[in-house]
Design goal:
Blueprint: H1 2-14, E1 23-27, H2 32-47, E2 53-60, H3 69-77, E3 82-86, H4 89-96, H5 102-120, E4 125-127, H6 132-146, E5 155-158, E6 163-166, H7 174-178, H8 181-184, H9 200-214, H10 218-227
Parallel strand pairs: 1-2, 1-4, 2-3, 4-6
Antiparallel strand pairs: 5-6
Length: 247
């Protein structure tokens, strides 16, 4: 867990993610990343120099075959309240709307339900399990499919909901979650979604994996570019600076 706690603590401190008195909802999807985040935050809570509360939350989309019993048992073991909100998202996406690209609508509906649940539970922050590899994949997803340079922020304030999204694992490598002995013992719930594994993100994940084998320090270089304090200068602005150069 050291390879997770160290980078997580650095992200929390660097981006001022957690303050005294925060009540933080941790989004549990059932996958390895979100349960690793919950375990790490529960550990951090014990030695952190600030006091904050944790509450685990899950949006049940209504997919058949999902069994949350292992997550319920784990949250009971570590003494963290756990709320599961049952919804009909799957029915809307697959049966009513019959979406050809179900992931986009499902994600929007899940986000809305999750944000509302946080408000109902009086949580002022929502912690999500996105790690460094997710940030890189999102960067290329945006570049390839949206034509823009973008990725998610470590901290995002939602004005309408008055909730702050935090991503404490942004400096954590996915492999350090996968191969951590303690994380391997955590309960993971396999998704029964028919679209699981057939998304654009999976295609980009394969691309990034290939690039890692061909380019030394690929992850570090992309993350450095993402964190570069000097913004990318788009061509649209060059017309204002014709004939000027620092060379």
């Amino acid at each position: 867990m050291k390879k997770i706690l160290g980078p997580m603590r650095r992200a929390i401190q660097q981006f001022n993610m957690i303050s005294d008195g925060d009540r933080i909802a941790v989004g549990l999807s059932g996958g390895k990343d979100s349960i690793a985040l919950l375990a790490a935050l529960a550990r951090y809570q014990k030695f952190a120099p600030i006091d904050f509360e944790l509450e685990a939350v899950t949006i049940d989309a209504g997919l058949e075959g999902m069994n949350y019993a292992p997550l319920i048992e784990y949250c009971h073991q570590i003494n963290i309240p756990y709320t599961i909100l049952k919804t009909s998202i799957a029915s809307v996406v697959f049966d009513i709307r019959k979406e050809q690209n179900p992931c986009s609508l499902c994600a929007r509906m899940r986000r809305g339900a999750l944000h509302n649940l946080c408000k109902d539970l009086h949580c002022n922050k929502l912690a999500l399990g996105h790690h460094a590899d997710d940030a890189i994949e999102t960067f290329f997803l945006s570049l390839f499919y949206e034509g823009r340079i973008n990725t998610f922020q470590p901290v995002t304030y939602l004005n309408r909901k008055k909730i702050t999204l935090i991503r404490p694992l942004v400096f954590v490598k996915e492999k350090d979650i996968i191969y951590d002995p303690e994380c391997q013992r955590l309960p993971i719930i396999g998704s029964t979604c028919p679209a699981d594994g057939f998304t654009k993100r999976e295609e980009v994940k394969e691309f990034v994996s290939k690039m890692r084998t061909e380019i030394p320090d690929f992850n570090r270089k992309i993350l450095s570019a993402i964190q570069n304090p000097h913004p990318f200068l788009p061509w649209a602005n060059t017309s204002k600076n014709k004939g000027h150069s620092n060379d």
